[in-house]
Specification:
There is one protein chain. The protein is an alpha+beta fold and about 180 residues long. It has a single domain (about 5-180), classed as Cyclic phosphodiesterase (Cyclic Phosphodiesterase, Chain: A). Helices cover about 25% and strands about 25% of the residues. It is built from five helices and seven strands; from the N terminus they run H-E-H-E-H-E-E-E-H-E-H-E. It has helices at about 5-15, 35, 75-80, 125-135, 160-170; strands spanning about 25-30, 60-70, 90, 95-105, 105-115, 150-155, 175-180. The strands form two sheets. It has a four-stranded antiparallel β-sheet with strand order 2-1-7-3, covered by helices on one side. It has a three-stranded antiparallel β-sheet with strand order 4-5-6, with helices on one face. It starts with 5 loop residues before the first helix and ends with a strand.
Length: about 180
C-alpha cells in the first residue's frame, strides 16, 4: 500500500503498532478476462519490496479501508460489526481507466484503476463511501486525505502506462460484478 510519511510511521510505532502491517478491507471484483488479455506481459511491474504490487496477478478489488491498526483477517468480527447493515453493491458501473503513480525504490510504476465517469457517480459509490465511513470509526491511519472509490486492476511500468490505458479504454465496458469482502493477508 502507499508509503507512509516518516512521522506517521513513528506515531504508529509509539502506539505499539506495526507500520508495515496495517490492516486492509476490500471488496473483490470479477474482472472480465478481456481486461487481462489486452495487457502485454512485458508491460507489467512487480515489486520486490511490496508484495501487493504484483503485475496483473493480484485480485481486482475496491479498497474499502487501508490503514487499520490491527489485522482485519484476525479480527473479522470487528469488521463485520462495523459493516452491519451496510448494503454491498452487487455491480459497479466503472468504465474509465485511470492511473495512480507510484515509486518503488526509485522504480517508476503506475497502478491501473477503473473509475466511474462523473455522470455515473451513483448509489454504488455512495455505498462504497458508506463502508469507508463505517470502517473509519475503527482505529486506523489514513495515508490519503480523501476516499476515492476505484477498482484496482494491475501495475505497469511507467513507460507503458499510456499504451495500457489506451488498450483498456478500447474495450467495451459493462458493469462489474462484486464478490466477497477481502480481509487482507
Amino acid at each position: 500500500m502507499p508509503e507512509l510519511d516518516p512521522n506517521v510511521r513513528k506515531a504508529i510505532e509509539l502506539c505499539n503498532g506495526n507500520p508495515d502491517q496495517l490492516g486492509y478491507v476490500g471488496l473483490n471484483v470479477e474482472l472480465p478476462n478481456a481486461y487481462r488479455l489486452v495487457l502485454d506481459r512485458r508491460w507489467e511491474y512487480r515489486s520486490e519490496q511490496q508484495q501487493y504490487i504484483d503485475g496483473y496477478d493480484g485480485k481486482p478489488h475496491v479498497t474499502l479501508l487501508y490503514g487499520l491498526m490491527f489485522s482485519a483477517k484476525e479480527n473479522q468480527v470487528l469488521i463485520d460489526e462495523a459493516l452491519k447493515g451496510w448494503r454491498k453493491p452487487t455491480i459497479l458501473p466503472y468504465y474509465r481507466v485511470s492511473v495512480f503513480r507510484g515509486d518503488d525504490a526509485g522504480d517508476a510504476y503506475s497502478c491501473l484503476v477503473l473509475k466511474p465517469e462523473e455522470r455515473d457517480y451513483d448509489w454504488a459509490n455512495e455505498e462504497l463511501e458508506d463502508a469507508n465511513a463505517r470502517l473509519s470509526k475503527l482505529p486506523h491511519v489514513r495515508p490519503f486525505v480523501d476516499y476515492d472509490p476505484h477498482v484496482t486492476i494491475g501495475f505497469v511500468k511507467r513507460e507503458y502506462e499510456q499504451e495500457a490505458v489506451e488498450e483498456l479504454n478500447s474495450l467495451s465496458t459493462r458493469p462489474l460484478i462484486t464478490l466477497d469482502l477481502d480481509y487482507g493477508d
